[in-house]
Design the sequence.
């Protein structure tokens, strides 16, 4: 996690499994949690996924305070099915810590 206390612009954040991940639908989201006092109103982001050895790279821009979904895909015993990003992104029942 790239936090304000140790923030370095461009430093990657990584999520991975050491063994096979559970089957199901995966959503890859970017959440601009805080601007860390830098005053930026937007930031370009690059997201790279590696699923079963196939690498895909997504480039987009996120606005301050925004959460965007970059890609969704179904992971199961069959072929990977990529789905269009949703625009109604929510965090469901996962509590979010207060920003600031």
Sequence:
């Amino acid at each position: 996690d790239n936090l304000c206390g140790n923030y370095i612009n461009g430093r990657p954040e990584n999520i991975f499994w050491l063994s096979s991940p559970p089957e199901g639908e995966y959503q890859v989201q970017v959440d601009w949690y805080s601007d860390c006092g830098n005053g930026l109103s937007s930031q370009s982001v690059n997201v790279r996924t590696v699923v079963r050895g196939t690498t895909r790279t997504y480039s987009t821009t996120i606005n301050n305070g925004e959460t965007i979904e970059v890609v969704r895909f179904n992971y199961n015993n069959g072929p990977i099915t990529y789905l269009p990003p949703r625009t109604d992104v929510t965090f469901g029942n996962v509590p979010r810590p207060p920003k600031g």
